[in-house]
């Protein structure tokens, strides 16, 4: 930067500080200029946000937008001219329906209906692609060009105007210390920048018919999309209703189970299907009590009426210790004494001995 350029930057910085900190007043711009500047600022913000919201409208899923942005960047790096389109949710749904419809096959009413719906969804995706292309060409691109060119150029002119105003005000405040020619040149540059900025803002505001036309193109594209979408969905609805009527009028097939084939298990060595059962434990006497586990019961013999304390053997009992009384299932045993809560003393066939209570059924209890 030249010495003159450095001096000018110093002048502008000094004037800005004096205005912000010292409260000095700079040259005031007329109300018409300020009104135009305000309208341009509002227009700039409106265009920027509408662009963002339009892209969100075309592709609501933020993850898909991020993925598309990445793919577009990669395409530009690779030199690919054609950018990939938006992944349409209708197309993804249609592919899912078609895939499962084919898996179910032509014999399934639901499978055929899925194929119809899937093909219609894929057609909707194609129509949505057309909407995206139409909106991008006739609405998004023109607005983006407005942001990148016209509005950016206006901001450049306004920034340049502000710099020249600060330079002029600094020199005007030091009139007499600065040559008159330099002050005159600063004023001319300021007025020149003001005229250029005014003209560019005026042209933008007066040609807003272009933005109205672009907005009309957006609505036309939406109308065309919705007309085609309604036609596709109405055709699909008619197909599905026809399938419902055909399925309802078709006689229902009765399901007859196939006859069961005989299944020969053969002779089982074990009664529980092959798993060996534990052998019946042998009960031995002890000084206190025996286990209450019971072996398998076998059919009992008939029992005559009794009029004395007695019990009937439920299981075979083999004595293993001295003093125990052995018996067979169905034997009638005369009770003579209760040793404890688990053992009785009784007589059978003239023999007396002890036996476990769990092996017998008391018919006539011992007197208390």
Automatic annotation (TrEMBL):
Its main location: other. GO terms for cellular component: cytosol; early endosome membrane; glutamatergic synapse; podosome; presynapse. Residues 18-249 form the BAR domain. It comes from the Eukaryota. GO terms for biological process: synaptic vesicle uncoating. Keywords: Cell junction, Cell projection, Coiled coil, Cytoplasm, Endocytosis, Endosome, Lipid-binding, Membrane, SH3 domain. InterPro entries: AH/BAR_dom_sf, BAR_dom, Endophilin_A_SH3, Endophilin_SH3RF, SH3-like_dom_sf, SH3_domain. GO terms for molecular function: identical protein binding; lipid binding. Residues 243-308 are annotated as: Disordered. CDD domains: BAR_Endophilin_A, SH3_Endophilin_A. It is a peripheral membrane protein. This is Endophilin-A2. It comes from Mesocricetus auratus (Golden hamster). The gene is Sh3gl1.
């Amino acid at each position: 930067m030249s010495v003159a350029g450095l001096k000018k930057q110093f002048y502008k910085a000094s004037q800005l500080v004096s205005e912000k900190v010292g409260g000095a007043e700079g040259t005031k711009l007329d109300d018409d200029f300020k009104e135009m500047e305000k309208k341009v600022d509002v227009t700039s913000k409106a265009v920027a946000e509408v662009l963002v919201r339009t892209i969100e409208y075309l592709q609501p899923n933020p993850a898909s937008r991020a993925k598309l942005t990445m793919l577009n960047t990669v395409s530009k790096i690779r030199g690919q001219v054609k950018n990939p389109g938006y992944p349409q949710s209708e197309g993804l749904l249609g592919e899912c329906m078609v895939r499962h419809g084919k898996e179910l096959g032509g014999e399934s009413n639901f499978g055929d209906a899925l194929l119809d719906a899937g093909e219609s969804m894929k057609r909707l995706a194609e129509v949505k692609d057309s909407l995206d292309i139409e909106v991008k060409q006739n609405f998004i691109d023109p607005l983006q060009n407005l942001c990148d060119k016209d509005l950016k150029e206006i901001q450049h002119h306004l920034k340049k105007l502000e710099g020249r105003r600060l330079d002029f005000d600094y020199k005007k405040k030091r009139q007499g210390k600065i040559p008159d020619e330099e002050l005159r040149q600063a004023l001319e540059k300021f007025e020149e920048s003001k005229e250029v900025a005014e003209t560019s803002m005026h042209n933008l505001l007066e040609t807003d018919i272009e933005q109205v036309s672009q907005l009309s193109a957006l609505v036309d594209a939406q109308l065309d999309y919705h007309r085609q979408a309604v036609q596709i969905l109405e055709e699909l609805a008619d197909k599905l209703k026809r399938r419902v009527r055909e399925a309802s009028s078709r006689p229902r097939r009765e399901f007859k189970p196939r006859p069961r084939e005989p299944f020969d298990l053969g002779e089982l060595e074990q009664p529980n299907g092959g798993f060996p059962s534990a052998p019946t434990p042998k009960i031995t006497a002890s000084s206190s009590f025996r286990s209450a586990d019971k072996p398998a019961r076998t059919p009992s013999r008939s029992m005559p009426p009794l009029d004395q304390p007695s019990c009937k053997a439920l299981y075979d009992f083999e004595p293993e210790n001295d003093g125990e009384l052995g018996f067979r299932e169905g034997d009638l045993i005369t009770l003579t004494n209760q040793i404890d809560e688990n053992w009785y003393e009784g007589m059978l066939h003239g023999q007396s001995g002890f036996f476990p209570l769990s092996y017998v059924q008391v018919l006539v209890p011992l007197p208390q």
